[in-house]
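Objective 1b. Sequence-to-structure analysis of Transmembrane protein 130.
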Amino acid sequence: MARAVWSRLGRILWLSCLLPWAPAGVAAEFLVGDLVVTQNTSLPWPSSYLTKTVLKVSFLLHDPSNFLKTAVFLYSWDFGDGTQMVTEDSVVYYNYSIIGTFTVKLKVVAEWEEVKPDATKGVMQKTGDFSASLKLQETLRGIQVLGPTLIQTFQKMTVTLNFLGSPPLTVCWRLKPECLPLEEGECHPVSVASTAYNLTHTFRDPGDYCFSIRAENVISKTHQYHRIQVWPSRIQPAVFAFPCATLITVMLAFIMYMTLRNATQQKDMVENPEPPSGVRCCCQMCCGPFLLETPSEYLEIVRENHGLLPPLYKSVKTYTV
């Protein structure tokens, strides 16, 4: 019994020494088979797997004629993250702890005894190299929202989203009065290539709101909500109203000034028949001093234009006896 164990162990060590010099490639004279990777979690995306979840890596030999049924196999595994192992079993289980793209490489050596034509026994050998590419992802375990819960209208708000897991491919968000999940097509997705994202918004109307956020990557999706209360601003409306009120006040004052000035000028012209020297008009043209020769002529013109005073000369009736 001990001799058989040592004989088997010696053969394994000998095959292990031969593995580095085994020829690469798969041809008719080499082993033919497939390297299959499976995981308990079924994902709809090809070659995508979860980290921190056990992977089953299997080698399926293609030998329909059972030619190699008496052969001894040795498997050398390289998982692409620095881990290597040699086994006699065609199935191994491995757990990746980090995200990334890895290539699993397998070198297979098959050895058996064969009787030669001269009735002597010889050791025959076949080898084969196989590989499979794996993309390891982390599920989105949640979204951490950092931002205010109370804000005023017309104030710019910034909310930071931290994704717990692999970077999502898309992020979608929308403001709602209630915290409800987002339906498909309800918001416009944004591409994100990191584990953090900042969104900004300015509220114009007060009230209670809820940020409904959805993030997803190639293997999972998650939702998160963030309530916020918006109060009316005490400063911003006054800032907008002050220029308008000032402009309206100036216009009204100008109109009242012009109206009173015109009325005053008309009254002075009626009550003061003597024309002042150097009178000037303020209605977009200038009048020179009156060129009338006598005050009576000026008074007559005023009476005729305004019709407010009786004529200067009364008609005299003549009676003939």
